[in-house]
Amino acid sequence: MSQKQNRLGNPLLAGGVVLIILGLTSLSFWPSDWSREYRDFFASMFGAAAVAMILIAVVEARHLREALNENAKRIVEHSGSQLDKKFDDSFDILHQCNQNGLYAIHLPRQVEPRICTLHTALQGEIAKTKKLSIIGVSGLDFFSSPLGAATTAGPYYEACKTRLIPSHTPKLASLDIRALLLNPTCDAAKNRDTLEIVDGVPASIARDINIAKHGIETLNRLAKRSAIEYIFYDTTPQLWAVITDDYVFVEPYHSAPTEKLCSQLQEMDLPASQEDRSCTGGRVPVLQFSKRSNMYLAVQVQFEYMWSQFNSHGRKTQANNVIQPIAHTAGSG
């Protein structure tokens, strides 16, 4: 409703009310000696005031309805524009993801497997891929075998085991696994041990590698062939990566000290997050890229480069060179 309409309607309405009040008052104190003409005059005035008031009320109601409709229309248009913007932004994000071959963003590896989409996606890929290439620190996610009732296997150990035993998957092609693991005697491993000090006790890459080697030996024995090969690299770990025939899963590594990082983690915002505070890895989202992406190509080229470089240096380690295993729980390197 416009201000001009308000300025016109409100005085008229007030005037009509005054006329009606005066009419009612005059009827209450009607002089007996007034002529019929006076009486008809006041009755006409009273009737006119009543009609005017009704008309004004109708006009005001119409203006009010128009104003409400206008406001409602503005609200709907505003909400619609906001929704349109959100849809446009979401579409732009999806378009950019598609352009870059980003297939999925998974919760961190340390999140409990039953609610982590990564666990389901990676197990599904292991079940059908012909080749599996892994870059990590210790490879415990894949090679940590259960050593007695008090220990647990790595989250992908059983999936690898199922594929490697011929009788379990007779219709599928055999699975070949190559893994780049951190050399436990190099300076980079010592630095990582220092980063992962918890309650004054440093981590032990050497212990974790020993566990992984035991698991690799076990899996190769079950496969009845050397299905798993691994090489040690000496450089600072840059990423955790798993390459399958169709996808690459990538988690950027960082150098945040474990105690400082875990004391400030936002995992309380994630459902059913694990309470493991002994490892700095597995705390950030894992990105899944398709084989059409530059990321897939880059990680694949990096893997092959590292494999050839460190293999040529004589650092290829045979799976039967296994130190006596130590009781453990699965890590996330």
Question: What do you see in this structure?
Answer:
The protein is α+β, with helices and mostly antiparallel strands and 333 residues long. It has two domains: 3-96; 102-317, Endonuclease, Chain A. It has helices at 3-28, 36-99, 117-126, 140-143, 157-164, 187-195, 205-223, 258-263, 294-312; strands at residues 102-106, 131-135, 176-182, 228-233, 239-243, 247-252, 286-290, 316-317. The chain has an eight-stranded mixed β-sheet, sandwiched between helices. The protein is elongated, with a radius of gyration of 39 Å. The protein starts with a helix and ends in a 16-residue tail after the last strand.
Instruction: Report the count of strand segments.
Output: 8
* Radius of gyration using CA atoms only: 39 Å
Count of spatially separate domains: 2
Describe the main β-sheet briefly: 8 strands, mixed
Average pLDDT figure = 77
Give the count of helical stretches. 9
CATH class of the largest domain: Alpha Beta
Q: Rough shape? A: elongated
The portion of residues assigned to helices is 40-55%
Strand order of the largest sheet: 1-7-6-5-2-3-4-8
Beta-strand residue fraction: 5-15%
